[in-house]
Input
Amino acid sequence: MSPPLRRWPSSSPSDACSSCANEGNDMPKAVIVGGGIGGLATAVAFTRRGWEVEVLERSARIAEVGAGLSLWPNAFRALDELGLGAEIRGRAQEEGSAGIRDNTGRWLSRTDIEAVRVRYGSPLLMHRADLLDILRASIPEYAVRTGISVSAVRADGTAEHSAGTSAGDVVVGADGIRSVVRRAVCGAIEPRYSGYTAWRVVVDPREPVGDMGESWGRGERFGYGTLPDGRVYCFATADMAAGTAGGGLSEMRARFGSWHEPIPALLAAADDTAILKHDLYDLPPLKTYVAGRIALLGDAAHAMTPNLGQGACQALEDAVVLARVAAEDGDLTRYDAQRRPRTQMIVKRSRVIGAVGQLSSPVAVLARNALLRLTPSSVQLKSLAPVLDWEG
Output
């Protein structure tokens, strides 16, 4: 069990300034390393439970890349507990018809969205920056410190950083797949390359796009979905060696420009300067997410490929569970026991789906496509249960 919660004094004048609004009180404190979706959601969760929070973000400002984000019903159960569900639903677009096609447009699998709504709730799509803005506005302005690089964290609840030292009853590692905080919990852990890279871009199409979904080729995939403002979020993947240079809009058009509509039209409307290209990695299973007063969440604990659309969703779940456990008795091993099996199961599922989607052998692709066409929608619906049936 973790040591009993206690109020830590600030360790330097700069730290005292960050907590000046709460000076003299005896509230417990959470120091959160990382100001992304997981870190800010954790700050909201702790704030709602009466804790002081200090968010240390290495970037000069809180910002999110220009990309879309799927929020599944399990994520909205977490957001509802944070008191933000209604506001975020108002900024998101309900997903319509969806499924998987081949690169000619032939349907391989259709998703029964109405059955998903009835069984689990509605999946929604929104811009990542909009979610980040809502989370940021839900915590005190003084709680977030930008331009702060954390160099080391200790199990006693202290974090060394470029502006001094911060200390808390809990230190949360929400600093991504290359987490500094993770070293204090698990030592050096190297992310695993998936074998494929990804492009992402938001485009303003010349004609409205009504449906959404993915198309699978041989070692390549292309997906798209409509955002609330009518813009379309596009993403694509292709097998290639890690660190391959280049690969902007010209390569996307060369790879996907002959696929079925509306893919060529979306690429024609894309701006080359808006293209984001990143190799995709995940984490091997960690032996624990906690050590002393330290807890890992989001990509720092269980970075996953985006094939299930669950990366941000799982970080939101993490935030709710961690704040609850810390407030109830501070035994962070309970957080580990609740979150590690579930999130590692989802990492594995996402990795397997990616491997199937990226098949490139002609024989394997034919077999995959035939199996998808033969799989009843009821089986697909049931397969979602372990991921979406989370109640907190």
Residues 332-357 form the longest helix (26 residues). The mean pLDDT is 91. The chain is about 35% helix and 25% strand.
